[in-house]
Amino acid sequence: RKLYLLPSQCAPGDACAVPTTRRNQRIIFWLVSVLLIALLTFPYYGLVFFE
To answer: Which of 5, 10, 30, 42 could form a disulfide with 17 if both were Cys (CB 3.0 to 4.6 A apart)?
Structure first.
């Protein structure tokens, strides 16, 4: 999705017309990204916790 590009025109009443929708999408995107990176790199830092 285009989270950081200029928004296209939305019809009044659509979900994209609400300003908090775009902010919430960005927050969820970054939270999922951080979680995914943490899970993918777990074999590298997991040894510190289980030794």
So the answer is: 10
